[in-house]
Amino acid sequence: MENNKVDTIKDYVNNNQTGNKDASAESFPDFEYAVTGICIGCGKCLYVCPADCIVHDGVPYYIDASKCLSCGSCRDVCPVGAVSVL
Ligand code: SF4
Ligand code: SF4
Q: Residue 38 C-alpha to ligand 1 middle, in angstroms?
């Protein structure tokens, strides 16, 4: 992902009370991402998720859809292709 997009998402996360959501929604498609059963629990997705919405209290991990920004970073970084678009 381009750094400016990551910055935009982080800006949205950090300012989600100030009306930036609309701009973010225009920038990123409204895909729904989900972790599938082949997740190996490596943790790489935790480091790239700008919304801190990947739950890791067991394997496979799962995504808190209510907080996910659909940025796709977890899917890009996953070494086993465990993140799917619903
Ligand atoms: S798509 Fe993945 S990295 Fe992006 S916000 Fe959702 S769970 Fe986090
Ligand atoms: S990067 Fe992929 S395999 Fe690793 S914890 Fe996240 S979803 Fe699971």
A: 17
